Amino acid sequence: MGHSFGGPWTEDKLQRIDDYLDAYMTIFSGNLRASKLNTIYLDAFAGTGFRTSPVAEDRAEGSLFEDALEDPDADALKKGSAYVALRTKPPFGRYIFVDRNPAHAESLAALRQEFPELADRISVLAADANTFLQEWCRKTNWKVNRAVVFLDPYGMQVDWSTIEAIAATKAIDLWILFPLGQAVNRLLTRHDIPEGGQAQRLTRFFGTEDWKGAFYEEADTQLSMFEAFGEETGHAKRTNFDAIGRFFVNRLEQVFVGVSKSPLPLRNSKGVPLFLLCFAVANPNGAKPALKIANYLLRRQ
Ligand SMILES: C[S@@+](CC[C@H](N)C(=O)[O-])C[C@H]1O[C@@H](n2cnc3c(N)ncnc32)[C@H](O)[C@@H]1O
Closest residue (by CA) to atom 26 of ligand 1? Predict the structure, then answer.
């Protein structure tokens, strides 16, 4: 089925994840102690295994797109994260693909036909990522398993309690897209601190109410006409993309042993950082090499 999302930055994101998975499995299979552990790749917003870029879809009626379909490179651009993970060499011991959309789950299950040699290693679940991950992190025996988890939501779907559950395993390397310009910055309204459902959403996402103090200051009293009339002055947004990104990295640092300090901004054509590609490692023993590789991949031009 067709699944249209992202932009040119999507390929960049997937290439870096692809390279990380290869490096991870190469290290695991080359190390005698690590090779005794079972390795799992878990994609909790797995999509369909394929993608059609919105630009390509716009052109679908025209000859330009038909030409692109003939181009093997253009074909390569259409693989989604689940497909990319299944190409990892050497392969993971297990692949778990989760997507809330049952049609997407069906398409993911069909990947077994594309990768018959891995078919019995693939599990597909039509489920909510937060519910599934929290239970899976709790129930898995982390003495004998290690995992890479990829969280690639459209927006603010990942709850902080899920991130805490992942960190608590002390066995997972996490790649996560932080929806900086896509969602968080938009919810942080300019005049006065968000309230009600909007505030709850931000608190559930960051796992704290500290975002209020971090992103808002009392409005400038000299400029406030209201104060002269004894009215409350209210608050105003005092932040920018960099500070919001640092706040999230700092939150990750409170629960993970290692976090990349320079997440990669994924920008739209106007230069707006829609997402930050972030990396965090929960396993104290593997933190050093994992961070070294992730930092290299995040900085690579
Ligand atoms: C950006 S797409 C993922 C793309 C995928 N990583 C790829 O590279 O092909 C986000 C996916 O998350 C799924 N989704 C949205 N909310 C979800 C949730 N709460 N739990 C699980 N899946 C969810 C959507 O159905 C969609 O397929």
Answer: 47
